[in-house]
UniProtKB/TrEMBL annotation:
<dbReference type="InterPro" id="IPR013563">
    <property type="entry name" value="Oligopep_ABC_C"/>
</dbReference>
<dbReference type="InterPro" id="IPR003439">
    <property type="entry name" value="ABC_transporter-like_ATP-bd"/>
</dbReference>
<dbReference type="Pfam" id="PF00005">
    <property type="entry name" value="ABC_tran"/>
</dbReference>
<keyword id="KW-0547">Nucleotide-binding</keyword>
<keyword id="KW-0813">Transport</keyword>
<dbReference type="Pfam" id="PF08352">
    <property type="entry name" value="oligo_HPY"/>
</dbReference>
<comment type="similarity">
    <text>Belongs to the ABC transporter superfamily.</text>
</comment>
<keyword id="KW-1003">Cell membrane</keyword>
<dbReference type="GO" id="GO:0005524">
    <property type="term" value="F:ATP binding"/>
</dbReference>
<protein>
    <submittedName>
        <fullName>Peptide/nickel transport system ATP-binding protein/oligopeptide transport system ATP-binding protein</fullName>
    </submittedName>
</protein>
<dbReference type="InterPro" id="IPR003593">
    <property type="entry name" value="AAA+_ATPase"/>
</dbReference>
<dbReference type="InterPro" id="IPR050388">
    <property type="entry name" value="ABC_Ni/Peptide_Import"/>
</dbReference>
<keyword id="KW-0472">Membrane</keyword>
<keyword id="KW-0067">ATP-binding</keyword>
<dbReference type="GO" id="GO:0016887">
    <property type="term" value="F:ATP hydrolysis activity"/>
</dbReference>
<feature type="domain" description="ABC transporter">
    <location>
        <begin position="5"/>
        <end position="256"/>
    </location>
</feature>
<dbReference type="GO" id="GO:0015833">
    <property type="term" value="P:peptide transport"/>
</dbReference>
Amino acid sequence: VDGLLEVDGLVIDLPAAGGGVRVVDRVTFDIPPATTVGLIGESGSGKTMTANAVIGLLPDGAVTGGHLRWRGSPGEDLLQASPARRRRLRGHEIAMIFQDPLAALNPTQTIGRQVGEILRRAGRPRAEVRGRVLELLERAGIPEPAARMRSYPHEFSGGMRQRAMIALALAGSPALLLADEPTTALDVTVQARILRLLRSIQEEQGLAMLLVSHDLRVVAHVAHQVVVMYAGRVAERGPTGAVLAAPAHPYSRALVESVPAVRSRTALAHPLPGTPATPANRPPGCAFHPRCPLARERCRTEEPPARPVAPGRWAACHFAEELLPR
Ligand code: SF4
């Protein structure tokens, strides 16, 4: 296996009143080098928990199973790494950008200083730091970087702050960038610009990216591969184009039909029926069965395993073949 990161059978349990809740259940996918993987699902699907496990932001003991193999198997399991190793990985080999840049930026330091600090910690000689800060701000699309590096985060607009956070993330020269709903808080035009920026950075620098989003349009725009999550499990995964053109899971199909612009500008939108199952009240059998138009008796009792359904594609549906073109 030559994935940069292999998520293998990841299980996350969180404490809850009346016993623990399994919020992520045997989630498996890999992120090849220089590839963007979109992790998509409604709230409660486990997508953010999965990303937080990768970056090491979950409370101790929350991950109860699986492996996060870094740079190939058997390689290094991030779940077994020492706290010092995790800290070194975070911000350098693996960097993260969040929905809310203010949570990641220090309000009391100028943007230039914050980016410079990461470069210094990464061992850049002092004499090179200013030039590299300017390069990074420019790469993140911040105009007049020599002037803007002296600004504080509160002096930036929402879109500019997101660009500053991207510059900060790139400062450690990461191999993997985790982006959790990076454009959700922005207006539509700024969203499109930030997505274009992320895509061009990913392509030019050969970065791998894990893009977490509830918005299929965002994933369709940027991701090479998509992982669709439902109620803590993977419903389907595969190349984005193939999954969007012919979803192999009724849940992915419902997602695609709820956003017709993903496939055609003329089709009508069909909102997703019913309410999402959550890990705390996951129905037995296939968790999607109460909302599924194809559900049959078997679906109520027998959980469908994720299985290969076409080259490079996996789906957790007993009847996936019925959805695929023959
Ligand atoms: Fe629908 Fe059954 Fe497939 Fe689940 S296993 S998605 S209920 S057809």
